[in-house]
Amino acid sequence: MSQAPPETPAASSSAPLERAASGGTPPRTSAGAGIDYRLFLDCVHCGLCTASCPTYLETGNENDSPRGRIYLMRGVTDGRLPLDAEVRRHLELCLDCRGCETACPSGVQYGRLIEPFRVAMDAAVNRAASGAPSSGPGALSSPAAGEAASSGGPDWFHRWILFALFPYPERLRWALAPARLAQRLGLDRLARGAGLFELLSPRLRQLIETTPPLGPSLPPLPPTLPAIGPRRARVALFLGCVADVMFRQTHWATARVLQRNGCEVVVPRGQGCCGAIHYHAGSSEPARALADANIAAFSAEDVDAVVVNVAGCGAMLKDYGHDWNDARQPVRAAWAAKVRDVHQFLDDLGLTPPTRPVPLVATYHDACHLVHAQKIREAPRRLLAQIPGLELRELTESDLCCGAAGTYNLTQPEMAQRLSRRKLENILRTGAEVVVAANAGCLLQISREARAQGRALRIIHPMELLAESYGDAG
Q1: Every domain of the chain and the residues it spans
Q2: Domain 354-469 falls in which CATH fold?
Q3: What is the DSSP string of 186-246?
């Protein structure tokens, strides 16, 4: 296999790649030391992934492409490249959408490279912040080390918003109470019109602008919902954190659709965040604690499936079996084997045909962690095709990330907005009046962009349209 760096477009800065290609290969004591090295070698640098990479399409910089990032990670792992601020910037700009995995003819498991590497980068930042000595040629180097030490580890936004607020539904509900009141009184519109939002940091401004219209809170789902008609299955429904606060109507719709398809639905108490917010930001131990709490809350052996309706959560839950290599890994792997995306589950079960017409023109956006991470593309389309009266128009670049990517739209707002504008342009070309997406982050991101451009679009989850066609809407 060639060891040369991939070709770089003339307009792109290739400095990190050039530095990665120079020097020898010292012992692997760096950020990538815990990664199976064979995963790096799967990449043959053919470049077929670049057309599927949102950041490369926007920047044209080889360092922001999947093969470029793999080469950077491998350079750090081999000790040929320091884990400095420039390298970190290119790796942190990755959405982890895993579109490259779908495009790759060599079967590169990019998610199993970038995710543990980010965990290692986070550990390096924390070591630098605590003053602990770093070892190895691939350890965090200046100026990143100096920045980390002065910040005391994760910055305030990660510590107090992403890690301490979002994963905890009750805290988030309380935090949104002022926003709900401001929307009701029109104070948010006044503040926007007065330009007060422009005084905020980009991340806080994006957070406020992404908050959807907050209607009255729906009651929580009961512990058990009986099957309608002969029971065909018994399933446990995963609620998550942000989704249960902002999209509880989707959970109710999902439960009703499952009931209509002969499923008894149990909703375990004690469940919580899937851990993706922490894990994708490089904070592994809190994610592991959340994973183990979910496994304890669900009696997976008593149900036919653990059903999830949020693509990002589903991908995380299915990965419980290999994210941590410890004594509990077999338990996590067995639990993860029971996880099913709701579209996947209903498509396999055989959908009970809905009968009420829904005369709308719709387009379907493929959520990255459904189509790329979970490899589920056709099941949602097959379900939607059974709704009478619904016209489904194909979306150009349907599987290109909208810029949400979990909390990416808050941590990388500039790139996220570029991608959401690109997504909405493609949506508008379809002439659809409804946009359907199977992920909470996508729904929030596309809705934010539509509001920003003054576009009146209905943006909902497939389960809500199905519930409407069963006569169970609202």
Answers
A1: 15-153, 162-210, 224-347, 354-469
A2: Rossmann fold (3.40.50)
A3: THHHHHHHTTGGGGS-HHHHHHHHHPPP--PPPPPPPSEEPPSSS--EEEEE---SHHHHH
Between CA 219 and CA 221 the distance in angstroms is 7
d(CA 360, CA 269): 37
Q: What pLDDT digit, counting tens, does each position of 291-332 carry?
A: 999 999 998 889 999 999 999 999 999 999 888 888 999 999
Convert the pLDDT of each residue in 93-113 to its tens digit. 999 999 999 999 999 999 989
Conformation bin of residue 471: beta by default, left when phi > 0, alpha when psi is -120 to 50: left
Tell me which fold the domain 15-153 belongs to.
Fumarate Reductase Iron-sulfur Protein; Chain B, domain 2 (1.10.1060)
User: What is the DSSP secondary structure assignment for residue 301, as one 8-state letter?
Assistant: G
What pLDDT, on the 0 to 100 scale, is given for residue 345?
98
CA torsion, ordered 444, 448, 451, 452, to nearest 10 deg: -170
> Can you tell me the mean pLDDT for 133-138?
47
Measured between alpha carbons, how far is 124 from 33 in angstroms, rounded to an integer? Answer: 12
User: Cα–chain-centroid distance for residue 245?
Assistant: 17
pLDDT at residue number 328: 93
Q: Is the pLDDT of residue 27 over 50?
A: no
CB atoms within 10 A of CB 223: 10
d(CA 140, CA 313): 30
Cβ partners under 8 Å of residue 209, min gap 6: 197, 448, 451, 452
* pLDDT for the residue 340: 98
pLDDT digits (tens, 9 = 90+) for 388-406: 999 999 999 999 999 999 8
pLDDT at position 126 is: 62
Q: Report the SS3 class of residue 39.
A: helix
CA distances from 341 to 123, 201, 347, 386 (A): 32, 36, 10, 18
Q: Which fold has domain 224-347?
A: Rossmann fold (3.40.50)
Structure tokens at 253: 């719709």
Q: How far is CA 278 from the centre of its chain?
A: 11
Domains 224-347 and 354-469 share a fold: yes
